[in-house]
Design a protein that fits this description.
Length: about 325
Amino acid sequence: MRIRRIPAGWPLAAALAVAVLARSVSPASALQQLDREKLPGRQVKVSAISIGFGGKHDEKLKLAIEHLHAAGRNGVDIACLPEEFAGTNAEPIPGPTTQAIAELAEQYNMYVVCPIREQAGEKQYNTAVLIDRKGKIAGYYRKVFVFWGEGLHCSSEGVKAFDTDFGRISILTCFDLNFPELWAECDAKDVEIVLWPSAYGGGSPLNAYAILYHYYIVPVGAGNIMDITGKALTDVEKPLARQFIATIDLDRAFAHHDFNRQKVEKMLKEHKGEIIVERNLSDEDLAPWWLFKAVKPGVRVRELMKEHKIETLREYQHRSRRQINAARAEGKRV
C-alpha cells in the first residue's frame, strides 16, 4: 500500500504516526462485499465502531485502524467512528487523521465516517468527515448544536445529505440528538440512513426518530443500531469488542392503509413468494401501515410498489404536506 505524502507544516509526531500506521497496514484480502444485484431488496452492511470519545491521538488512531481492518475483512459498506475519537487537537481537512483513515477506506473499498476536531482557518468545528471507497473526501458535516463547554464554533451549514453508491445518508453528531428539527430535516432530504457519531448511547429518542421518519440510525456511542421499526437490531455481528456490524435492507418500505388496500392486495397476489408483509396493523403496533420486504433474489419492493402506483409512507406524508399546505395558502378546502 502506498504511503501518502505528509504535507509540510504538520507536527512531526502526527507525521510519524501516519507513516508508522501506514506501514502497519499489510495487504489483505477483504471478504467479498454484498452483491446487491443477486440479493433480495437493497442490502447494505454497516459498522458502528464504539471506541469512545477523545483520548491520546496515536493510541486511539491505532485502535481505530484495528477496528477498520475488522470492518473491512467483514465486507462492510460503511463504518462510523465516534465523535473526535482520536482526541481534541484540531487539524485541517485533509489532515493526519483523515489521511490515515483514508488508507483503510481505499484498501477495503468502504466508506468511513471519520469525526475530528477541524481547524478551518480561524475557526474550529466538531466535524464528521465522509471518506469514500477510493479514500477520497466525499463531504463533511459540522455539528450544529455544539455541547456546552466544547469551545467550538457552531455550524451554520445545517443538515447535509450525501449520495453514496448504496443509498442516501446524513450525519448528525451527539448533542444534535436533542433537537428534532435536525432529524426532521434528514427526513425532508429523503435520507435512508442517519449515522450518529456520539459520546454516549442516545437511548429512546433514537427509537422514536427511527420509527417516526422510517430511516435506519447507526449510533456509535453504544452500537445500538436502529431498525426502521424503531427497535434496536438484534442480529448483529461483533468481530471485536465495541464493534457492531449489521446488514440492513434499504428496500424495505412502509405504506399507509389510506387509498391502498386494493392495490396492495393485487401486488401481493401477483408477486406471491417474491415479497412478504413483515408488519401490519396489530395490537403491538396500532399504526395502519404495511411493512413490505423482498424475499426473492433480484426483487425490489419499491420497484413493484411504483408499478402498482403505491406510495411509500414517506412519499405519502411528504405529498400530503405539500398539497394540504398549498390548499391552506389558497384558502381552499381539502
